[in-house]
């Protein structure tokens, strides 16, 4: 059998009680085997003999001590000790008995918050009052019981609700009620838990869309410039090719009936040859192929004049 030393899952809480009213101490303890529980006041064991009228109980891990009608003599330090063969644990608090009264008052109220799914949530309040107020947490009007998922704790006048791992279904209106024999006070706040599927805030969405539009506009401008460049270049090439082709057709015409000049051996005019050469250098390959047969054509030698 596995053994486990005693642990207080919910320790004692200090109490301020009005004289003549009841004072209650309660703690939750776990351990294996089940611990034995003892109560002390200022180091002395509490029993019916030392504290007349006291009520002590322990069941299902819940230990409770009740003083039905406190007096100023009951003020002091109260402790609970849980013991088994694996170890020991102790929780100690104060009891203050006073004739004065004060209604509950929040010195620190709940604060609304928005968090991401899976994060821890801590809702804190500070509340005072005489006698000590009974503090309870609620979500959408339903009381929250302390558990592993929703832990309620107290340290002095600080009361906390801790949600170990929040999910969207934990969103809602949370409130704290503090009540004593003199009055009651409430503090309320909103909790919003955003899931992973939540939409990106509008401001970021607008920025992303604007950036995409700018990129598309710039791309369109570049494409138009490229198209215009190639259109102009193609037009120039075609014009020059046509002009060059026109010059190449001259050798097919009948030459004039006059003797050739002794200084010129080529029957093709120099201007036409230059234009053909320019067309070959700048025109695309299809035009060069269409003009290549023309290069081998020579004009017929004119007959001598009789």
TrEMBL record:
Q: Where is the composition biased (Polar residues)?
A: 279-292
**Annotated region (Disordered), positions in chain:** 244-306
Give the matching PROSITE patterns. Answer: IG_LIKE
Matches recorded under Gene3D superfamilies: Immunoglobulins
List all Pro residues biased stretches.
Answer: 256-270
Pfam families tied to this protein: I-set
Organism superkingdom: Eukaryota
Q: Where is the signal peptide?
A: none
Record-annotated Ig-like domain positions: 6-98, 104-192
PANTHER family documented for this protein = IMMUNOGLOBULIN, MYOPALLADIN ISOFORM X1
Q: What is the protein named?
A: Ig-like domain-containing protein
